[in-house]
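Person: Please comment on this record:
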Amino acid sequence: MDEVQFASQWKTVFHEADLRTVEDFFSFKQGQIVNANKRRSVMFFSLTTEQGPCNFFIKRFFHPHLKDMLFTFRNTGQICSQARYEWINIHTLQNHKIATCHPVCFGQIMRGPLERFSFLVTREIQGQCMADYIKQNWAAMSASDRQSLISSLGLLVRRIHQAGIHLPDLYVWHVFVTESEPHHTLALIDLHRATNRGKSRSLKIRSLGALEYSMLETYFDAETKAHFWDAYFNGQSSADRKAFLRKVRCRARVLRRRRKPPSYD
């Protein structure tokens, strides 16, 4: 099955740009590749609309691993492409009033139960990657501004987990700062591995371990992290908190042994 599904207001815009089929979107090269590996790539591009130029990102998935196809099946109960799965996750977050990408369209080429190709287009978020924001602004930020930012992150993750949503790729560079005044407002990107499995303690630890791994000590010292945890736990008893944190930090150490040191460059 070859399919392209648009959010209602975007179909005409893309058809006028001769982007109608999955093949059209995969052959489209009028943009800048910002990230790529053997299985997926992300490209930034612009189109002209009635309101003027509009910026987008297209994530393309190529011949996903069998384990990735099994992952989407296990989490949806049906045959589901990587792009459609992320489309579903975006709408799940939006239904919980959690800021994330603006979905525009997705497409897929399926051969029986197997996915060959799929893509997802989202509109550019008006904001800045949190890793870049911290690198550029941290030194000039007041103590109260730093606390506001890290507490906002703690509250965001708390809301995600209260909604039963888990993000094994919850890294600082997958969070966007969309507003800084009067308070920091944050949004999430890169949701193709998110799950919606209820309030699982082990999955919370896994996602928080990823976040802990991505927090560079250059910026996130013990005091700064304490503000995060205060916001996340929101009054939870200290005994439960200490046991939970030990497991989070253990997970972060596992990631540090397996992966290259994180960088905000």
